[in-house]
Amino acid sequence: MSNYHIKHLEEYYQVYRKSIREPENFWEEVAEEHFMWRKKWDKVLSWDFSKPEVKWFEGAQLNITENCIDRHLTTRGDKTAILFEPNSADEPAQHITYKDLYKRVNKFANVLKAQGITKGDRVCIYLPMIPELAVSVLACARIGAIHSVVFAGFSSSALATRINDSDCKMVITSDGSYRGAKSIDLKGIVDDALEDCPGVESVLVAKRIHSEVVMKEGRDLWLQPLLDEASEDCRAEVMNAEDPLFILYTSGSTGKPKGMVHTTAGYMVYTAYTFKNVFQYREEDIYWCTADVGWITGHSYIVYGPLANGATSVMFEGVPSFPDFGRFWEIVEKHKVTQFYTAPTAIRALAKEGVGYLEKYDLSSVKVLGTVGEPINEEAWHWYDDNVGKKKAPIVDTWWQTETGGIMITPIPFVTPTKPTYATLPFIGIQPALMDENGQEIKGNQVDGRLCIKFPWPSMARTIWGDHQRYKDTYFSAYENKYFTGDGALRDEVGYYRITGRVDDVIIVSGHNLGTAPIEDAINEHPAVSESAIVGFPHDIKGNALYGYVTLKEFGETRDHNNLRKEINQVITEQIGPIAKLDKIQFTAGLPKTRSGKIMRRILRKIASKDTSNLGDTSTLLNPEVVQDIIDNAL
Ligand code: 6R9
């Protein structure tokens, strides 16, 4: 069907127009021709953003793993589905074929069943980037259990919060993980977390680093012996289109993370369709996304999207700097990677090391480059284009979110002319709108505003686990009848979009979304701290880094400030994880506040960015005198 692969710009506009004029017919055609359904839908779409309620392919029945695995067995059984590249460059890569994956997922699914997991149960997965991570995700989907993957860099307390929020019955983890030259005691982190998680009945432990771990009698089980015993056949649970597939947590502007709920049919259709078009994926390609499956990018574009297309998806356990900064390029050369999808922060980190590492490797296999996670600056864009793509591989700057499930604004390679720092055009079926502060849509080009989406798309999150009101308040209340993304954007003279960044209290550090509130909550737990405010400031590698303004209690004032800084970062590491550590901590006598008591982050942001030229009128503040003091002592 011509709709599936878009080949030139005229066709993009044609298909786009159709997808907007007749969305139901359009998505029905995509769904009809490319997937395996146990039963077709009765209704393609019903929606009401005021509730909000969105249903795609209602009445349909399917199992996403039959689409990602079973249906490829006859045509691609011996093709590599997952190409696992270990942390150590000396350990051989593993080629897991579709046949192997079928067996491994079924065995794992049978283990879950034997442990009492059934349809609708929540299972927390806290694993490093090893094959068991993808396999356990798919095993949950096979039996209709709802997976909740928690990125294995989160601390025990962040893990416990997420386990409890969605009442997970089981945790799947490993003894430990490798990260470059380091190894991390994952099982120890899980043990700490579970002190506060009474609902967890069992823990399955994969062996990765062969460390000594404590196994709690009656709760913890080694995974491998159970897999060895399990059958290779497991009937796929028949799921309804709108049955939840997974929960994935994202930071919010209040302390509690939001468990975004994604459902089955729409998510599958949209991630598969975007994968094929955004990467111009062809049968013989070797596709590599460097994200972690702990983030939405890994869910949609390492696991589900690629596998639904029968692709070969590279899964890399390690880090770009180990054993040296040439590792990514070594892997590209070794596996002849054709599509390479990474984050601006990784590009900046690698660019800083110079092109020497790149020049050692043959990157001629690369056809398409991708970026995701935060705005890409012009310098990084050109470095990527010049040195990795040699100006021959188009860069797809893909804008999307955990909440959107799939890519929303993006060039289509070889189709959409690219423009540095622009995510360019809405993907098929996506209707963006820029809104002004009075809630009016800003029409026309060369304008900027707050980015909303006017019409549902199949992979949008349906709710926040356990808190539908918060889902409504966060995304559907700022602008009537529109999904509000939390991002600002501009539209240039030809209608290309450039995402300018968050307009709320989320700061993106190295591509990770961090809410200011949970970090402030963590800092404030330090006994010497009275109050704190976190802002982002520009950072060459991370995009943004964190600057903390901290006021101390009286006894804290007498303490050594450098020790205090270490302790504060220690608390953050324990509560959230090392990704949320502060680069700079300024101790100050007070924080600038409005009369209603709101901290004026706008002023603090400017000071942190060393831009004190135009702080605006500070005389209306509750405590204007602190501003000069903060400026004088800024770091
Ligand atoms: C997929 C993912 C979502 C936020 C999003 C935006 C930022 C993502 C971007 C981008 C500019 C891009 N973002 N891609 N900003 N250009 N190409 O990253 O999901 O972790 O939920 O983050 O990331 O601010 O709102 P998530």
UniProtKB/TrEMBL annotation:
Boundaries of every AMP-dependent synthetase/ligase domain copy: 70-462
Domain AMP-binding enzyme C-terminal: residue ranges: 519-598
Family: Belongs to the ATP-dependent AMP-binding enzyme family.
UniProt cross-references to Pfam families, sorted A to Z: ACAS_N, AMP-binding, AMP-binding_C
Protein name, entry field: Acetate--CoA ligase
Domain of life of the organism encoding this protein: Bacteria
Presence of keyword Nucleotide-binding: yes
Gene3D superfamilies listed in its UniProt record: 3.30.300.30, N-terminal domain of ligase-like
Domain Acetyl-coenzyme A synthetase N-terminal per the UniProt entry, residue ranges: 12-68
Organism: Aestuariibaculum suncheonense
EC supergroup of this enzyme: ligase
GO molecular function term, any single one: acetate-CoA ligase activity
Record NCBIfam families: Ac_CoA_lig_AcsA, PRK00174.1
